[in-house]
Amino acid sequence: MSVYLDNAATSFPKPKTVIEAAGRVLEEVGASPGRGSHKHAVEAMAVVSDCRQKAAVILGVKDPERVVFTKNATESINIVLKGWLRPGDRVIYSAMEHNSVARPLMKLASQGVGIEMIPCSSTGVLDLGALDRLLRAKARLVILVHVSNVNGAMMPLQEVADACVRAKVPLFLDAAQSAGLQPIQADELGIGMLACSGHKALLGPAGVGILYVRTDLDVLPLIEGGTGSRSEELEQPEFSPDRYESGTPNLPGLAGLREGIGYILDNGMNRILNHEIGLAHYLENELWQIPGVRVFEPETRGSGSVSFVVEGMNPADTGSILDQAFDIAVRTGLHCAPLAHRTLGTFPDGTVRVSPGFSTNIDNIEYFLNGLRWIVTKRG
Amino acid sequence: MNSEGAEDLTAGQFASAMVGVYDRSGKKLEQPQWVIRERPVTLYLNGKEVVTLLCAGHHLDELAVGFLYAEGFLRFPEDILDIEIDDEAGTVKLSAGHDDPIAERLWQKRTISSGCAKGSLFYFSLDALMGKRVKSDVRIAPARILDRLDDLNRLSETYRRTHGVHNTALADSDRIILFRDDIGRHNAVDMIVGHVFLHGIPLADKMLITTGRLTSELLIKAAKVNLPILVSRNTATSLSVELAVSLGVTLIGFARAGKFTVYSGQERIDVGLPG
Fold first, then answer.
1. Angstrom distance (rounded) from CA B65 to CA B43
2. In 3D, which of A263, A143, A151 has the Cα closest to residue A202?
3. How confident is the model at residue A40, as a pLDDT?
């Protein structure tokens, strides 16, 4: 048996419709969307527009034109941070952020942007009191990871969004782990910006990310270039999505993403969420019963990601043996989130992360547990 | 000396060869000289060939058991059903009740690190699986370490005759408990591991003294059997020092001429104890 339990990195396998759609546009459409008026270009544009509409639906955004396609969540995050923050600005972020936020922030800090962290408990619970205190002084942005990629801990989005609305500070939501799993109502929550990837819970191919920017927020684009619109002007268009979508889009990726989101809408996001969280709870309960295994359980779970360590064993070794002896794919180490691991007390070795997906079943989880039990028994 | 070192371990370990000894001027002396015996021995586990070792050819049961235990193929002594040694053919065939095909899948597999954390100190997956931090409260006086090293140096008749073996001993602070030598330092250690495994000797209060370099392989072997102190008259390698720190092993090198160097685990050296 071969078991893939690394869906928090990228979902696998993809629904068949995703693979077929990506293949179909390569075989039958093949044009650059929005560039040219021939049938192929028109059809390509229709694919992209439909994908944009579906993405708007799943993110709770009324105006699909505010939904921008990028190459991944990291690019979306960089656009916001570098296009919105200026030297002298003050930005507030959580202690559970991913390096896709932390690294650009560190660079901006070196250029004079003030950065302040909202602490979290050792299980990843955000200190809302600290956020309120931090918001008493003028801030340009609050950044929040919706669901931790390390242990699936969910942040109190509603409370943070309300606090940001009260303080009149835009909230930038990193929904890389939650988009496609958690219901997000970006408009209703008054979220300022949102970034997510298309290849995780949204089930699309790698190479597609999503960015949402609220109409009133003047986030500068990271790159300029051809957009297929207002080509007579040498200045970058100011309207969304063209402002942020220079260059030929990733048509096979977007065709696949459209089907990925379609799969979620057809099958019910809540059903997929309950399936993955149900597996995670089962897994956590079983892991606690294995001697020498320590689980980093969140207080509020937002995804199926489960993090644990075998006491005295480097997580990289545990993952290596699961792969070599049992053909089980898990992710080990710091998961590109050293801040979160410092918060959880698992820095610098990190943890073993098991992240089931929509197609993972209980037999897969049992197979994994038996593999881990063998490792623990063998170590004696 | 109350130790197995007193038994005649040298029988059949070396041969005599006629050699020519030359000096700078070209003067030649024909003379007999002892040379250490070297031979291939193939280990089989439940009918499957595992490895061929080049060794001096003695204590093959201990060598086979020590090797197979250290590599994760054996777990408990009672699992061993039979050990068949064919000295002529150079084979050791071991039958075990609990054959572990999963461990076989990991045999000689490299550990894989993603670069997303510090990564593993181990390079083989089976070592990563079996290597644990040593648990031991043993303390030892510096003079006792040097005394046991002197004991070891007196023991090897084969070394004196051939200069072709590594000597290894298991000792506590008072005496050498077990002595083995072989052309390969790992073989000598495997023999000791095999003996300890077969006889259920606890190691938490013992030290291993060797004439070989203190390498990572030796460190990992020590951690697998919960051996707290490693001593050599030779040097340690960088990876062995890293592993010793990580696995809680007291690593002692350059033990000669009345002193020694402690690379890690100095808390086990107790200068207040009687020497």
1. 10
2. A263
3. 92
pLDDT grade, residue B162 (50/70/90)?
Answer: low
A241 preceded by a cis bond (ω within 30 of 0): yes
* Global ipTM: 0.76
Distance, in Å, from the CA atom of A93 to the CA atom of A22, rounded to the nearest integer, reads 36
The SS3 of residue B99 is: coil
Please give the residue of chain B at the shortest CA–CA distance from A341: B117
Q: How far apart are CA A258 and CA A57, in angstroms?
A: 12
Whether residues B112 and A313 touch (CB distance < 8 A) is answered with no
Question: Could you list the mean pLDDT of each consecutive 10-residue stretch along chain A, which spans 380 residues?
Answer: 97 98 95 87 94 98 98 98 98 98 98 98 96 98 98 98 98 98 97 98 98 98 94 94 96 98 97 98 97 97 98 94 96 96 96 97 98 92
Axis-axis angle for helices A251-267, A269-288 (nearest 10): 80
Both tokens of residue A225? Answer: 């270039």
Active-site entry in B18, B102, B116, B117: B116
Rg, C-alpha atoms of chain B: 20
| Whether A324 and B103 lie within 8 Å, measured CB to CB | no
Please give the distance of CA A232 from its chain centroid, rounded to a whole number: 37
What is each CA distance from B64 to A189, A362, B47, B179, in whole angstroms? 68, 41, 14, 17
Burial class (CB in 10 A: 0-12, 13-18, 19+), A313: buried
Residues in chain B within 8 Å Cβ distance of A335 = 116
Give the number of A-B residue pairs with CB atoms closer than 8 Å: 81
Told to judge if B55 belongs to the known catalytic residues of this protein, a careful annotator would answer no
Q: Locate the chain B residue with the closest alpha carbon to A379.
A: B130
Q: Identify which of B213, B208, B184 has the alpha carbon closest to the alpha carbon of residue B195.
A: B208
Residue the block writes with tokens 């916001």: A80
Which of A82, A152, A70 is closest to A111 using CA atoms?
Answer: A82
Angle at A139 between CA A135 and CA A142, to 5 degrees: 75
The DSSP output letter for A20 is H
Contact A124/A305 with Cβ under 8 angstroms? no
Instruction: Centre a 10 Å sphere on the Cβ of residue A278 and count the other Cβ atoms it contains.
Output: 13
**How far is it, in rounded angstroms, from Cα A72 to Cα A253?**
11
Alpha-carbon gap, residue A97 to A129, rounded angstroms? 18
Nearest CA in chain A to B122: A317
Q: pTM of the prediction?
A: 0.87
DSSP assignment, residue B51? Answer: E
Element (H, E) at B16: strand B14-22
Identity of the amino acid at A344: L
- Give the per-residue pLDDT at A117: 98
Q: Calculate the CA A146 to chain-centre distance.
A: 8
C-beta of residue B108 within 8 angstroms of C-beta of residue B123: no
CB contact under 8 Å between B106 and A323, yes or no, is: no
| B111: DSSP letter | P
Tokens in use for A195? 């970034």
Report the alpha-carbon distance of residue A370 to residue A373 in Å, rounded.
5
Residue to test with chain B: of A309, A320, A349, A374, most B Cβ within 10 A: A320
Residue written as token pair 């955000």? A126
